[in-house]
Amino acid sequence: MQYIKDLACINCGKTFFPDPDKYLCSDCGEKGLLEVEYNYGLISRDWNPRIISENPDPSHWRYLPLLPVNPDSPRPPLRVGGTPLYRNVSLGEELGLEEIWIKDDGLNPTGSLKDRASSLAVVKAGEAGMKIVACSSTGNAASSLAGNAAASGMQAVIFVPRRAPGGKVAQLMIFGAVVISVQGSYSDAYDLSASSIDRWAWYNRNAAINPYLVEGKKTAVLELAEQFNWDLPDWVVLTVGDGCTIAGAGKALRDLQELEFIKKKPRLLGVQASGCSPITRAWKEGKPLEVCEENSLADSIAVGNPRNWQKAIRAVRDNSGAMVNVSDEEILEMMGLLGRKSGVFGEPAGVAGLAGIRRAVREGIIGKKEKVGIIITGNGLKDIDSARKAAGEPYRLAPDLGRMEEVVLKEGLDEL
Ligand SMILES: *Cc1c(COP(=O)(O)O)cnc(C)c1O
Ligand SMILES: [Zn+2]
After folding, report:
1. What domains, with CATH codes, occur in the chain?
2. 62-83: buried (b, 16+ CB within 10 Å) or exposed (e) per residue?
3. Probe ligand 1: pick from 33, 105, 113, 296, max atoms within 8 Å of CB?
4. What is the pLDDT of residue 205?
5. pLDDT score, position 186
6. pLDDT value at position 187?
7. Which residues does the chain have with pLDDT short of 50?
8. Atom 1 of ligand 1 has which residue's CA nearest to it?
9. Which of 84, 105, 169, 366 has the fewest CB atoms below 10 angstroms from its CB?
Protein backbone atom coordinates (compact mmCIF):
# COMPACT_ATOMS: atom_id res chain seq x y z
CA MET A 1 0.00 0.00 0.00
CA GLN A 2 2.99 2.26 0.42
CA TYR A 3 2.90 3.04 -3.30
CA ILE A 4 -0.81 3.80 -3.66
CA LYS A 5 -1.85 7.42 -4.06
CA ASP A 6 -5.62 6.98 -3.96
CA LEU A 7 -8.66 5.52 -5.68
CA ALA A 8 -9.94 7.72 -8.52
CA CYS A 9 -13.49 7.69 -9.93
CA ILE A 10 -13.41 6.93 -13.67
CA ASN A 11 -16.53 9.04 -14.13
CA CYS A 12 -15.87 12.29 -12.24
CA GLY A 13 -12.22 12.02 -11.19
CA LYS A 14 -12.91 12.46 -7.48
CA THR A 15 -10.36 10.63 -5.33
CA PHE A 16 -10.80 8.50 -2.22
CA PHE A 17 -8.69 6.92 0.50
CA PRO A 18 -7.95 3.27 -0.46
CA ASP A 19 -10.00 1.46 2.20
CA PRO A 20 -10.09 -2.31 1.55
CA ASP A 21 -13.89 -2.28 1.23
CA LYS A 22 -14.26 0.91 -0.81
CA TYR A 23 -15.86 -0.09 -4.12
CA LEU A 24 -17.66 2.85 -5.74
CA CYS A 25 -17.53 6.66 -5.96
CA SER A 26 -19.77 8.17 -3.30
CA ASP A 27 -21.08 10.76 -5.79
CA CYS A 28 -21.57 8.69 -8.92
CA GLY A 29 -22.83 5.36 -7.52
CA GLU A 30 -22.87 2.42 -10.00
CA LYS A 31 -21.34 4.57 -12.76
CA GLY A 32 -18.46 5.60 -10.54
CA LEU A 33 -16.09 2.65 -10.77
CA LEU A 34 -12.84 3.37 -9.00
CA GLU A 35 -9.31 2.89 -10.25
CA VAL A 36 -6.21 2.36 -8.13
CA GLU A 37 -3.68 5.15 -8.72
CA TYR A 38 -0.03 4.53 -7.90
CA ASN A 39 2.80 6.88 -7.12
CA TYR A 40 5.00 5.85 -10.05
CA GLY A 41 7.85 8.13 -9.00
CA LEU A 42 8.18 6.31 -5.69
CA ILE A 43 7.91 2.90 -7.32
CA SER A 44 10.66 3.53 -9.84
CA ARG A 45 12.90 4.79 -7.08
CA ASP A 46 12.72 1.33 -5.39
CA TRP A 47 12.04 -1.11 -8.20
CA ASN A 48 13.06 -1.97 -11.77
CA PRO A 49 13.28 -4.91 -14.22
CA ARG A 50 16.67 -5.97 -12.87
CA ILE A 51 15.32 -6.27 -9.31
CA ILE A 52 12.34 -8.22 -10.65
CA SER A 53 14.60 -10.62 -12.54
CA GLU A 54 16.44 -11.39 -9.28
CA ASN A 55 13.24 -12.22 -7.38
CA PRO A 56 13.06 -16.03 -6.95
CA ASP A 57 9.26 -15.97 -6.34
CA PRO A 58 7.65 -17.24 -9.59
CA SER A 59 4.12 -16.22 -8.54
CA HIS A 60 2.39 -12.98 -9.40
CA TRP A 61 3.38 -11.56 -6.01
CA ARG A 62 6.73 -10.79 -7.63
CA TYR A 63 4.97 -7.61 -8.86
CA LEU A 64 4.05 -6.58 -5.31
CA PRO A 65 4.89 -2.86 -5.68
CA LEU A 66 2.16 -2.69 -8.36
CA LEU A 67 -0.41 -4.57 -6.28
CA PRO A 68 -2.84 -2.83 -3.93
CA VAL A 69 -2.15 -4.84 -0.79
CA ASN A 70 -0.30 -4.22 2.40
CA PRO A 71 3.07 -6.02 1.97
CA ASP A 72 2.66 -7.60 5.42
CA SER A 73 -0.87 -8.92 4.91
CA PRO A 74 -1.16 -12.72 4.94
CA ARG A 75 -1.50 -14.14 1.41
CA PRO A 76 -3.02 -17.42 0.26
CA PRO A 77 -0.14 -19.88 -0.15
CA LEU A 78 -1.28 -21.05 -3.61
CA ARG A 79 1.06 -20.36 -6.51
CA VAL A 80 -0.92 -17.94 -8.66
CA GLY A 81 0.66 -16.76 -11.90
CA GLY A 82 4.02 -17.83 -13.26
CA THR A 83 2.21 -19.50 -16.15
CA PRO A 84 4.19 -20.63 -19.20
CA LEU A 85 4.53 -18.96 -22.59
CA TYR A 86 4.96 -21.02 -25.75
CA ARG A 87 5.71 -20.10 -29.33
CA ASN A 88 3.75 -22.21 -31.78
CA VAL A 89 4.59 -22.14 -35.46
CA SER A 90 2.01 -24.54 -36.86
CA LEU A 91 -0.85 -22.90 -34.98
CA GLY A 92 0.30 -19.58 -36.39
CA GLU A 93 0.17 -21.04 -39.91
CA GLU A 94 -3.41 -22.19 -39.36
CA LEU A 95 -4.43 -18.70 -38.28
CA GLY A 96 -2.52 -16.93 -41.07
CA LEU A 97 0.26 -15.56 -38.86
CA GLU A 98 4.03 -15.86 -38.85
CA GLU A 99 4.46 -15.52 -35.12
CA ILE A 100 2.03 -16.43 -32.37
CA TRP A 101 2.72 -16.96 -28.69
CA ILE A 102 0.37 -18.70 -26.26
CA LYS A 103 0.33 -18.01 -22.54
CA ASP A 104 -1.46 -20.84 -20.75
CA ASP A 105 -3.27 -19.24 -17.83
CA GLY A 106 -5.37 -22.37 -17.45
CA LEU A 107 -2.40 -23.63 -15.42
CA ASN A 108 -3.27 -21.41 -12.47
CA PRO A 109 -4.15 -23.26 -9.22
CA THR A 110 -7.89 -23.50 -9.90
CA GLY A 111 -7.50 -23.56 -13.67
CA SER A 112 -8.15 -20.00 -14.80
CA LEU A 113 -6.83 -16.46 -14.93
CA LYS A 114 -9.40 -15.57 -12.25
CA ASP A 115 -6.98 -16.79 -9.58
CA ARG A 116 -5.01 -13.62 -10.18
CA ALA A 117 -7.98 -11.57 -8.95
CA SER A 118 -9.33 -13.94 -6.29
CA SER A 119 -5.98 -14.15 -4.52
CA LEU A 120 -6.17 -10.38 -4.09
CA ALA A 121 -9.80 -10.51 -2.98
CA VAL A 122 -8.90 -12.85 -0.16
CA VAL A 123 -6.04 -10.61 0.99
CA LYS A 124 -8.29 -7.53 0.89
CA ALA A 125 -11.01 -9.36 2.81
CA GLY A 126 -8.43 -10.20 5.47
CA GLU A 127 -7.33 -6.56 5.60
CA ALA A 128 -10.96 -5.54 6.08
CA GLY A 129 -11.21 -8.02 8.96
CA MET A 130 -13.80 -10.16 7.19
CA LYS A 131 -14.11 -13.93 7.33
CA ILE A 132 -16.71 -14.47 4.62
CA VAL A 133 -16.10 -13.67 0.96
CA ALA A 134 -18.86 -13.79 -1.64
CA CYS A 135 -19.38 -13.41 -5.34
CA SER A 136 -21.60 -14.28 -8.25
CA SER A 137 -19.93 -15.85 -11.21
CA THR A 138 -20.44 -17.80 -14.39
CA GLY A 139 -18.03 -20.28 -12.81
CA ASN A 140 -14.33 -19.41 -12.79
CA ALA A 141 -14.41 -16.39 -10.50
CA ALA A 142 -16.38 -18.58 -8.13
CA SER A 143 -14.12 -21.62 -8.23
CA SER A 144 -11.04 -19.47 -7.85
CA LEU A 145 -12.53 -17.52 -4.95
CA ALA A 146 -13.51 -20.78 -3.28
CA GLY A 147 -10.01 -22.22 -3.79
CA ASN A 148 -8.19 -19.14 -2.57
CA ALA A 149 -10.58 -18.83 0.40
CA ALA A 150 -9.95 -22.47 1.28
CA ALA A 151 -6.20 -21.86 1.15
CA SER A 152 -6.63 -18.88 3.50
CA GLY A 153 -9.05 -20.43 5.98
CA MET A 154 -11.97 -18.23 4.92
CA GLN A 155 -15.55 -19.17 4.06
CA ALA A 156 -16.78 -18.52 0.50
CA VAL A 157 -20.44 -18.02 -0.44
CA ILE A 158 -21.00 -18.41 -4.17
CA PHE A 159 -23.93 -17.59 -6.45
CA VAL A 160 -23.85 -19.30 -9.86
CA PRO A 161 -26.35 -19.21 -12.73
CA ARG A 162 -28.19 -22.41 -13.55
CA ARG A 163 -26.08 -22.97 -16.70
CA ALA A 164 -22.69 -23.06 -14.90
CA PRO A 165 -20.74 -26.11 -16.20
CA GLY A 166 -20.53 -29.14 -13.93
CA GLY A 167 -16.74 -29.12 -13.62
CA LYS A 168 -16.77 -25.64 -12.15
CA VAL A 169 -19.58 -26.37 -9.70
CA ALA A 170 -17.74 -29.53 -8.61
CA GLN A 171 -14.68 -27.39 -7.83
CA LEU A 172 -16.81 -25.15 -5.63
CA MET A 173 -18.13 -28.04 -3.64
CA ILE A 174 -14.68 -29.58 -3.24
CA PHE A 175 -13.27 -26.29 -1.96
CA GLY A 176 -15.99 -26.20 0.71
CA ALA A 177 -17.95 -23.18 -0.51
CA VAL A 178 -21.61 -22.59 0.29
CA VAL A 179 -23.03 -22.75 -3.24
CA ILE A 180 -26.30 -21.19 -4.38
CA SER A 181 -27.35 -22.21 -7.90
CA VAL A 182 -29.66 -19.35 -8.87
CA GLN A 183 -32.41 -20.57 -11.14
CA GLY A 184 -32.02 -17.79 -13.68
CA SER A 185 -29.41 -15.94 -15.76
CA TYR A 186 -26.00 -14.70 -14.67
CA SER A 187 -27.58 -11.27 -14.13
CA ASP A 188 -30.08 -12.81 -11.71
CA ALA A 189 -27.23 -14.50 -9.85
CA TYR A 190 -25.37 -11.19 -9.72
CA ASP A 191 -28.38 -9.34 -8.30
CA LEU A 192 -29.01 -11.91 -5.57
CA SER A 193 -25.33 -11.89 -4.61
CA ALA A 194 -25.29 -8.08 -4.48
CA SER A 195 -28.30 -7.89 -2.19
CA SER A 196 -26.99 -10.70 0.04
CA ILE A 197 -23.59 -9.03 0.31
CA ASP A 198 -25.35 -5.81 1.33
CA ARG A 199 -27.63 -7.52 3.80
CA TRP A 200 -24.96 -9.61 5.59
CA ALA A 201 -21.90 -7.40 5.00
CA TRP A 202 -19.68 -10.02 3.37
CA TYR A 203 -16.57 -9.18 1.38
CA ASN A 204 -17.55 -8.45 -2.23
CA ARG A 205 -15.50 -10.21 -4.89
CA ASN A 206 -17.76 -9.14 -7.73
CA ALA A 207 -14.90 -8.19 -9.96
CA ALA A 208 -16.47 -5.41 -11.92
CA ILE A 209 -17.10 -3.09 -9.03
CA ASN A 210 -14.13 -4.08 -6.85
CA PRO A 211 -11.24 -1.83 -7.93
CA TYR A 212 -8.59 -4.11 -6.45
CA LEU A 213 -9.45 -7.12 -8.56
CA VAL A 214 -8.64 -5.53 -11.90
CA GLU A 215 -5.21 -4.98 -10.37
CA GLY A 216 -4.89 -8.72 -9.85
CA LYS A 217 -5.93 -9.49 -13.40
CA LYS A 218 -3.37 -7.09 -14.78
CA THR A 219 -0.58 -9.38 -13.58
CA ALA A 220 -1.20 -11.63 -16.60
CA VAL A 221 0.11 -8.83 -18.80
CA LEU A 222 2.86 -7.75 -16.39
CA GLU A 223 4.08 -11.32 -16.53
CA LEU A 224 3.73 -11.47 -20.30
CA ALA A 225 5.84 -8.32 -20.58
CA GLU A 226 8.56 -9.82 -18.39
CA GLN A 227 8.47 -13.07 -20.39
CA PHE A 228 9.02 -11.04 -23.57
CA ASN A 229 11.89 -9.23 -21.87
CA TRP A 230 9.82 -6.00 -21.71
CA ASP A 231 9.28 -5.93 -25.47
CA LEU A 232 5.66 -7.03 -25.98
CA PRO A 233 4.32 -8.33 -29.33
CA ASP A 234 2.35 -6.08 -31.67
CA TRP A 235 -0.97 -7.44 -30.40
CA VAL A 236 -2.19 -8.94 -27.14
CA VAL A 237 -5.45 -10.87 -27.47
CA LEU A 238 -7.98 -11.47 -24.69
CA THR A 239 -11.56 -12.63 -24.42
CA VAL A 240 -14.11 -10.28 -22.89
CA GLY A 241 -17.05 -11.04 -20.58
CA ASP A 242 -17.51 -8.57 -17.74
CA GLY A 243 -14.58 -6.64 -19.17
CA CYS A 244 -12.25 -6.76 -16.15
CA THR A 245 -9.57 -8.87 -17.78
CA ILE A 246 -9.04 -6.55 -20.72
CA ALA A 247 -9.37 -3.54 -18.39
CA GLY A 248 -6.61 -5.12 -16.31
CA ALA A 249 -4.50 -5.52 -19.44
CA GLY A 250 -4.99 -1.82 -20.17
CA LYS A 251 -3.99 -0.95 -16.61
CA ALA A 252 -0.87 -3.12 -16.79
CA LEU A 253 0.21 -1.36 -19.97
CA ARG A 254 -0.36 2.02 -18.41
CA ASP A 255 1.70 1.04 -15.34
CA LEU A 256 4.52 -0.36 -17.47
CA GLN A 257 4.63 2.72 -19.66
CA GLU A 258 4.53 5.15 -16.72
CA LEU A 259 7.41 3.24 -15.12
CA GLU A 260 9.23 3.17 -18.47
CA PHE A 261 9.66 -0.60 -18.27
CA ILE A 262 8.33 -0.82 -21.84
CA LYS A 263 8.98 1.55 -24.73
CA LYS A 264 5.89 0.85 -26.81
CA LYS A 265 2.49 -0.53 -25.94
CA PRO A 266 0.96 -3.42 -27.89
CA ARG A 267 -2.51 -3.10 -29.40
CA LEU A 268 -5.33 -4.97 -27.68
CA LEU A 269 -7.78 -7.27 -29.44
CA GLY A 270 -10.92 -8.00 -27.39
CA VAL A 271 -12.99 -11.01 -28.43
CA GLN A 272 -16.60 -11.75 -27.54
CA ALA A 273 -18.99 -14.54 -28.49
CA SER A 274 -21.47 -13.49 -31.18
CA GLY A 275 -24.33 -14.86 -29.05
CA CYS A 276 -23.50 -12.32 -26.34
CA SER A 277 -21.46 -9.33 -27.43
CA PRO A 278 -22.76 -6.16 -25.76
CA ILE A 279 -19.29 -4.67 -25.27
CA THR A 280 -18.28 -5.13 -28.92
CA ARG A 281 -21.50 -3.43 -29.90
CA ALA A 282 -21.05 -0.48 -27.54
CA TRP A 283 -17.45 -0.13 -28.74
CA LYS A 284 -18.45 -0.19 -32.43
CA GLU A 285 -21.39 2.16 -32.11
CA GLY A 286 -19.83 4.47 -29.56
CA LYS A 287 -23.02 4.24 -27.51
CA PRO A 288 -23.79 3.26 -23.90
CA LEU A 289 -24.07 -0.45 -23.27
CA GLU A 290 -27.31 -2.27 -24.02
CA VAL A 291 -27.97 -5.37 -21.94
CA CYS A 292 -28.41 -8.49 -24.08
CA GLU A 293 -29.19 -12.21 -23.89
CA GLU A 294 -26.55 -14.79 -22.99
CA ASN A 295 -26.48 -17.25 -25.90
CA SER A 296 -23.08 -18.88 -26.08
CA LEU A 297 -21.45 -22.06 -24.86
CA ALA A 298 -18.45 -19.94 -23.87
CA ASP A 299 -20.05 -19.51 -20.46
CA SER A 300 -17.21 -17.49 -18.93
CA ILE A 301 -17.67 -14.67 -21.41
CA ALA A 302 -21.44 -14.88 -21.88
CA VAL A 303 -22.23 -11.84 -19.76
CA GLY A 304 -25.36 -10.01 -20.88
CA ASN A 305 -25.02 -7.14 -18.42
CA PRO A 306 -21.27 -6.60 -18.03
CA ARG A 307 -20.45 -4.28 -15.15
CA ASN A 308 -17.05 -3.20 -16.34
CA TRP A 309 -17.81 -2.27 -19.94
CA GLN A 310 -16.58 1.31 -19.56
CA LYS A 311 -13.14 0.32 -18.33
CA ALA A 312 -13.00 -2.39 -21.02
CA ILE A 313 -13.78 -0.01 -23.88
CA ARG A 314 -11.37 2.54 -22.51
CA ALA A 315 -8.62 -0.10 -22.49
CA VAL A 316 -9.31 -0.98 -26.13
CA ARG A 317 -9.38 2.69 -27.20
CA ASP A 318 -6.28 3.69 -25.22
CA ASN A 319 -4.34 0.92 -26.88
CA SER A 320 -5.43 1.45 -30.51
CA GLY A 321 -7.26 -1.83 -30.20
CA ALA A 322 -10.21 -3.56 -31.79
CA MET A 323 -13.06 -5.87 -30.86
CA VAL A 324 -14.40 -8.83 -32.87
CA ASN A 325 -17.05 -11.47 -32.30
CA VAL A 326 -16.83 -15.20 -32.99
CA SER A 327 -19.44 -17.94 -33.25
CA ASP A 328 -19.74 -21.00 -31.02
CA GLU A 329 -18.79 -23.18 -34.02
CA GLU A 330 -15.54 -21.28 -34.45
CA ILE A 331 -14.84 -21.56 -30.72
CA LEU A 332 -15.31 -25.34 -30.74
CA GLU A 333 -13.10 -25.60 -33.80
CA MET A 334 -10.36 -23.69 -31.94
CA MET A 335 -10.63 -25.92 -28.87
CA GLY A 336 -9.72 -28.86 -31.08
CA LEU A 337 -7.12 -27.00 -33.11
CA LEU A 338 -5.28 -25.63 -30.06
CA GLY A 339 -5.23 -29.05 -28.43
CA ARG A 340 -3.94 -30.82 -31.56
CA LYS A 341 -1.33 -28.21 -32.41
CA SER A 342 -0.01 -27.39 -28.97
CA GLY A 343 -1.04 -29.81 -26.22
CA VAL A 344 -2.81 -26.95 -24.45
CA PHE A 345 -6.42 -27.64 -23.40
CA GLY A 346 -8.51 -24.49 -23.17
CA GLU A 347 -12.15 -24.03 -22.21
CA PRO A 348 -14.39 -22.28 -24.77
CA ALA A 349 -13.88 -18.78 -23.33
CA GLY A 350 -10.19 -19.57 -23.08
CA VAL A 351 -9.76 -20.30 -26.77
CA ALA A 352 -12.28 -17.89 -28.30
CA GLY A 353 -9.44 -15.41 -28.75
CA LEU A 354 -7.85 -17.74 -31.32
CA ALA A 355 -10.98 -17.55 -33.44
CA GLY A 356 -10.84 -13.79 -32.95
CA ILE A 357 -7.28 -13.73 -34.27
CA ARG A 358 -8.23 -15.68 -37.38
CA ARG A 359 -11.07 -13.26 -38.04
CA ALA A 360 -8.92 -10.20 -37.38
CA VAL A 361 -6.28 -11.50 -39.80
CA ARG A 362 -8.91 -12.17 -42.48
CA GLU A 363 -10.39 -8.72 -42.01
CA GLY A 364 -6.97 -7.07 -42.21
CA ILE A 365 -7.10 -5.79 -38.61
CA ILE A 366 -4.03 -7.83 -37.71
CA GLY A 367 -1.30 -7.96 -40.36
CA LYS A 368 0.16 -11.37 -41.27
CA LYS A 369 3.65 -10.23 -40.31
CA GLU A 370 2.61 -8.85 -36.96
CA LYS A 371 3.61 -10.68 -33.79
CA VAL A 372 0.69 -11.80 -31.63
CA GLY A 373 0.44 -12.96 -28.01
CA ILE A 374 -2.72 -14.60 -26.70
CA ILE A 375 -3.65 -15.54 -23.17
CA ILE A 376 -5.57 -18.80 -22.91
CA THR A 377 -7.68 -17.80 -19.91
CA GLY A 378 -9.17 -21.07 -18.65
CA ASN A 379 -8.58 -24.82 -18.61
CA GLY A 380 -10.59 -27.16 -20.82
CA LEU A 381 -11.11 -29.79 -18.13
CA LYS A 382 -13.63 -27.46 -16.53
CA ASP A 383 -16.10 -27.99 -19.34
CA ILE A 384 -16.01 -31.54 -20.60
CA ASP A 385 -19.31 -31.30 -22.46
CA SER A 386 -17.92 -28.62 -24.77
CA ALA A 387 -14.71 -30.59 -25.21
CA ARG A 388 -16.76 -33.59 -26.34
CA LYS A 389 -18.62 -31.41 -28.82
CA ALA A 390 -15.29 -30.12 -30.12
CA ALA A 391 -13.38 -33.38 -30.34
CA GLY A 392 -15.95 -36.17 -30.63
CA GLU A 393 -15.95 -39.64 -29.08
CA PRO A 394 -13.33 -42.41 -28.97
CA TYR A 395 -13.49 -45.66 -30.93
CA ARG A 396 -15.45 -48.20 -28.92
CA LEU A 397 -13.83 -51.54 -29.65
CA ALA A 398 -14.05 -55.11 -28.47
CA PRO A 399 -10.61 -56.29 -27.31
CA ASP A 400 -9.85 -57.69 -30.76
CA LEU A 401 -6.74 -57.10 -32.89
CA GLY A 402 -8.67 -57.47 -36.15
CA ARG A 403 -10.93 -54.54 -35.26
CA MET A 404 -7.83 -52.63 -34.15
CA GLU A 405 -6.38 -53.09 -37.61
CA GLU A 406 -9.39 -51.31 -39.13
CA VAL A 407 -8.66 -48.32 -36.90
CA VAL A 408 -4.98 -48.27 -37.84
CA LEU A 409 -5.91 -48.19 -41.53
CA LYS A 410 -8.68 -45.63 -41.08
CA GLU A 411 -6.41 -43.28 -39.14
CA GLY A 412 -3.52 -43.79 -41.56
CA LEU A 413 -1.28 -44.87 -38.68
CA ASP A 414 0.42 -47.36 -41.00
CA GLU A 415 1.72 -44.48 -43.09
CA LEU A 416 3.40 -42.52 -40.28
C1 LIG B 1 -13.71 -14.40 -16.67
C2 LIG B 1 -13.13 -15.02 -17.87
C3 LIG B 1 -12.88 -14.28 -19.02
C4 LIG B 1 -13.26 -12.84 -19.22
O5 LIG B 1 -12.92 -11.98 -18.18
P6 LIG B 1 -13.85 -10.72 -17.87
O7 LIG B 1 -13.14 -10.00 -16.81
O8 LIG B 1 -15.17 -11.27 -17.41
O9 LIG B 1 -14.00 -9.96 -19.12
C10 LIG B 1 -12.32 -14.95 -20.09
N11 LIG B 1 -12.01 -16.25 -20.04
C12 LIG B 1 -12.21 -16.98 -18.92
C13 LIG B 1 -11.84 -18.42 -18.94
C14 LIG B 1 -12.79 -16.40 -17.81
O15 LIG B 1 -13.00 -17.15 -16.73
ZN1 LIG C 1 -17.44 9.93 -9.27
Report:
1. 85-111+213-391 (3.40.50.1100)
2. bbebbbbbeeeeebbebbbbbb
3. 113
4. 83
5. 78
6. 82
7. none
8. 300
9. 84
What pTM, to 2 d.p., does this model score?
0.95
Ligand nearest to the CA of 135: 1
| Atom number of ligand 1 nearest to Cα 208 | 7
| Residue-level pLDDT at 207 | 62
Closest CA to 6 of 40, 36, 42, 26: 36
For residue 137, the ligand 1 atom closest to its alpha carbon is 1
Q: Residue 168: what pLDDT?
A: 83
- Residues 112-155: tens digit of each pLDDT: 999 999 999 999 999 999 999 999 886 898 899 999 999 999 99
Report CA 336 to chain centroid distance, whole Å.
21
Pocket probe for ligand 1: among 83, 186, 217, 242, the residue whose CB has the most ligand atoms within 8 Å is 242
240, 289 contact by CB (below 8 A):
no
208 contacts 308 by C-beta, under 8 angstroms: yes
Q: How far is the CA of 23 from the centre of ligand 2 (A)?
A: 11
Beta strand ranges found along 94-154 (DSSP E): 99-104, 132-136
Q: Rounded CA gap, 185 and 277, in Å?
A: 16
The C-alpha angle 150, 77, 164, rounded to 5 degrees, equals 40
- Rounded Cα distance between 335 and 131, Å, is 38
* DSSP line for 262-323: -SSPPEEEEEEETTB-HHHHHHHHTS---------S-GGG--SS-TTHHHHHHHHHHTT-EE
Task: Report the pocket of ligand 1 as residue ranges, CB < 6 Å.
Answer: 112, 114, 140, 207, 239-245, 300-301, 347, 349-350, 377-378
